[in-house]
Amino acid sequence: MKRRVFLTAATAGMAAGAVAKPAIAQSAPEIRWRMTSAFPKSLDTLFGGGELLAKHVAEATDGKFIIQPFAPGEIVGAPQAADAIGSGTVEMGHTCSYYYVGKDPTFAIGTNLPFGLNSRQTNAWLYHGNGNDLLNAFYAKHNLFALPAGNTGAQMGGWFRKEIKTVQDLQGLKMRIAGLAGQIMSKLGVVPQQIAGGDLYPSLERGTIDAAEWVAPYDDQKLGLNKVAPYYYYPGFWEGGPAIHFFINLQKWNELPKAYQAAIQAAAGYANVDTQAKYDARNPAALRSLLGAGAQLRPFSPEIMDAAYKAANEIYDDLSAKNPDFKKIYDSYKAFRNEEYLWFQVAEYAYDSFMIRARARG
Amino acid sequence: MKRRVFLTAATAGMAAGAVAKPAIAQSAPEIRWRMTSAFPKSLDTLFGGGELLAKHVAEATDGKFIIQPFAPGEIVGAPQAADAIGSGTVEMGHTCSYYYVGKDPTFAIGTNLPFGLNSRQTNAWLYHGNGNDLLNAFYAKHNLFALPAGNTGAQMGGWFRKEIKTVQDLQGLKMRIAGLAGQIMSKLGVVPQQIAGGDLYPSLERGTIDAAEWVAPYDDQKLGLNKVAPYYYYPGFWEGGPAIHFFINLQKWNELPKAYQAAIQAAAGYANVDTQAKYDARNPAALRSLLGAGAQLRPFSPEIMDAAYKAANEIYDDLSAKNPDFKKIYDSYKAFRNEEYLWFQVAEYAYDSFMIRARARG
Asked: What's the complex ipTM?
């Protein structure tokens, strides 16, 4: 763009009205970014959040700032995304912070902690509870800047080949579950397994594993796990309101014109509400379909929930003792959660309770 | 801007690189809009949603598209906003659709119906359940284009001078409550009153009225009603998830450059998630403070909830029989609600239930 500005200024004696032109041109440079998504295109609700951001940024900048989403593996795989963005190999990504707990367990809090905030509370903490600022101070150590990009809402607890009623039933159970959730389950006797989504069906069919968690009805339906592991447990207590994030290379973010930063921020906010809305709109029909195809809904027993809650708190105490970043952010998150449920148990919960009962009565 | 373009082209033989300039200039015209807010600045959470939109649109357009928010009465009052926007007196507004039920009861559905969708479900219906399209087809008859702009979440049922336990206790009770909620309460024996927010305190203190509904703890706290009507009922079954809207004059919207439309759409989405997040972040401390100052929390009794639910459905049946626009949109909304609670009663509700119990146990 600089060349154009030079030519314009050079062509003739500048009319007063033309003085503004170079400023416009400079503030709207042509920029192309690549965005590595951690979500395969088959998970259209998640992948679509990145496409939505790209579309609105392109439109709002009159096609000057183009962000192109790439499926996992086209540039780097999901596990490598944080490093690739931090190092500047790719300018930005669309991913879940908790995929990077191997680098530092503090990454988990950005998405959600087991028995943590629900979806709305997560947004409240991020945008207006100091969460975004606390997280970005941590992410900056990894050369990342993050913006909330969506939420799935409370997830399901996954698919089990047999009913489980007690903690005893979990002993030796091979379950596909990762991260802090895997550590909690491990304390309860489960043997956590790391298996890619595409391998879950044959693994459950063959009995290589006994259970697998994925997301919620709309995404789960695509894997067809109900045919090989019919018991569909809830709630996924390890994912009560997991946030999706856009991760951006910190220098690249700081170098963006302010107008482009504003376009990304607004589009990320829109992607946030839109992604949750899409999940909420699509999960009911998928649940209905799964139930029609033989899925057996089962709540986790109070015994299992209580044991998992205790195990989670032990893990948080351990991590807080060892990791100052984790402690600092967890302390904020935990205190916020306590306040949130003081309020959510009143109008919101009473309203939903009545509506659920009214629906059941027809 | 046209004058500038002409001057530039006229100054000298145009260099190839300069050809793009007029296009940039034309696609980024300087536009100033006024936005009439229906919310006083004292309701900073609501008024702030309009400011957030204005800020992001201004930044994303490099200061070319300026939207200036005005408090109610500075241009027109909240009740006149829809007409003023439709007629083009003012380009846009930040308001609640249900303030205009006097024009047509169909306006109510845009915000929320009593016993309707909760906040997340409202977004799901609007963005991905055909709600926005159905509503905009209706709003077009009033020369309006609407974008969701926020939500308060489930509201409280208001402040009562005396405890009410039965429908009998509601007979002759003078309550500040408007719109369809007022019609429902009227069927239950209440005498609905129309009183401005600022007059609620003296009216309750003097006993001119017996009860008043407002919003939820953060906004309610500002009015101090706990001192004159200590019984604080929940849930506000008439506002389980009320949406805020940006209303835009339809021609003005259609005439906007596509880039400016994209900037508004993204910023409106961001304002939507941000407004809900702000309420969710601020309500807990306000509730705690109100309880500390003597507010007495009371749930509406099942008898009152059931009677109100029945009354609401009768009103919807009546309106559907008389008003094809209402019927068309209500049918979509009602069917969507039935599907939503099929799903929300599973993972989401079970998760919140556990977290509320876990908090109560410490």
From this structure: 0.93
